[in-house]
Amino acid sequence: MRDCFRSSIERSSPMSIRRIEAGPRMSQAVIHGNTAYLAGQVGNPGANVTEQTKAVLAEVERLLKEVGSDKTKILQAIIWLADMKDFAEMNAVWDAWVDPAHTPARATGEAKLATPDYKVEIIITAAV
């Protein structure tokens, strides 16, 4: 029985991992199996929350296209705001962008981002 178990493991091959726009520290996206993981996307430093959110979502769309997906296949969105007072302003942009028939699981929290000039960061997981 043990030999049978071992041979079935040896025959299976691991799923491939594909990295998009890989750099020395991080990749902008990683695909494993049928799932794409996007790095946290940030907008133009110093822009207001509306402008940063629009820029982030445009970059999310570009990366989703690159990995063979789109916003209707987003499984989860994690949104970090530098200040929760910007929640309604960010939501106005998000609500205009997201497909209401395909809303993902989503969480929004407040965090100190990489620089004070960043007001919003969005992390996406999507089906491919």
Automatic annotation (TrEMBL):
Record's PANTHER family? PTHR47328, RUTC FAMILY PROTEIN YOAB (PTHR47328:SF1)
Listed Pfam families: Ribonuc_L-PSP
Organism of this sequence: Brucella neotomae 5K33
Q: Which InterPro entries match?
A: RutC-like_sf (IPR035959), YjgF/YER057c/UK114 (IPR006175), YoaB-like (IPR035709)
Protein name (record): Endoribonuclease L-PSP
